[in-house]
Amino acid sequence: MGNPQTSNPDGYIHTRDADEYQRLRDQAAMWQGATEALLDRAGLGPGMTCLDVGSGPGSVMRLMADRVGASGHVTGLEIDGKLGAQALADLKAQGGAEFAHVEADMLQAAAVPGGPFDLTYCRLFLMHMQDPVAVLEKMLAWTKPGGVVAAQEFDFGAIAVEPLCPAMGEFNRLFEGVFRGHGRNLRAGRQLPAQFEAAGIGAPSGTLAEVKYIPLGQMAAMLIGVYQGLFASAAELGIADTARAEAFKRDMAEAAADGRYYCLTPILIGAWKRVP
Ligand SMILES: C[S@@+](CC[C@H](N)C(=O)[O-])C[C@H]1O[C@@H](n2cnc3c(N)ncnc32)[C@H](O)[C@@H]1O
C-alpha cells in the first residue's frame, strides 16, 4: 500500500480509493449493532421513508432497508458519485426495499427527491462539517412533521492503547493534527445534544453510546487504514513523512501481533429526536 498523495477538491480529509472504501465497509460492520439499536429506538419500521446523509458505501442504507421493507424507501445522499453509485447497485442487487441515490453536496442541496422523510439520519458526517448546526437545520427541514432526526458521531476523547504503545502515539499525532489542522471535530459525539438544540430540533428524545475495548490485533488494520487514508491531508499541512509512515505501519503491525495490547475505540454516540 502506497501513501495517497492527493487530497480531495471538496476538502473531505480521507482519501477516496478502493482501500478507503473497504475500510468504510469494515468500519460499518464494526458498528452495525450500535446503528441497528439506534434505528430501532428511533422507531424505524415497515413502509417508512428514510434518508442517509453522507451515505458512503451504503451500509446504513442496508440496515434501514431491513426495517422499512419492500413498501419502504431508502435514499442515500452522497457527494462521492462513484461510491454512491456502487452502493446503489449493491443494494438494488440485494433488494428488500426501494432504493435511490442522490449525488450531491449536502450543503448545496435545497431539497431531496422523495422527501420529506420519516427519518433523516447521518453517521460519521457532522464531525467532518465546519458548521454541523447548519447541516442539522437542513436535516430538520427534510423531515416530516412527526418524523425523526437522528445522528451518530464518533467522540475521540478516550481513544487509547494500553499498555502505552509508541505506534499509537504516532497515530494520534497525525490523526489529531489533520483533524485540528483542517478544522474537523474530535468531540462531535458528545456535542450532539447541544447541536440539536442549536439547530431548533430540541433536546434529543434519547441518546445511545457504544465503545469497545478489544485486542489491538482486531483494530490495527483499521488504525493503519485511517492513517494511510489521511496521509494526503497530512501532507498538505506539512505533518506527513513517508519514512515515519512506514515505521508507523511496521510498529503497529508488530504491536498487533504481540498480543499484550488492548485498544479503547472511539465512542460512537447517537442522538435522535421525534420532531413535532
Ligand atoms: C466517514 S464517511 C461515513 C459514511 C457512512 N455514513 C458510514 O457511516 O459508513 C463520510 C461520508 O460523507 C461524504 N460527504 C462528505 N462531505 C459531504 C457533503 N458535503 N455532502 C454529501 N456527502 C458528503 C463522504 O464522501 C463520505 O462518504
From TrEMBL:
InterPro entries: Methyltranfer_dom, SAM-dependent_MTases_sf. Pfam families: Methyltransf_31. Residues 46-160 form the Methyltransferase domain. This is Methyltransferase domain-containing protein. It comes from Methyloceanibacter superfactus. The lineage of its organism: Bacteria, Pseudomonadati, Pseudomonadota, Alphaproteobacteria, Hyphomicrobiales.
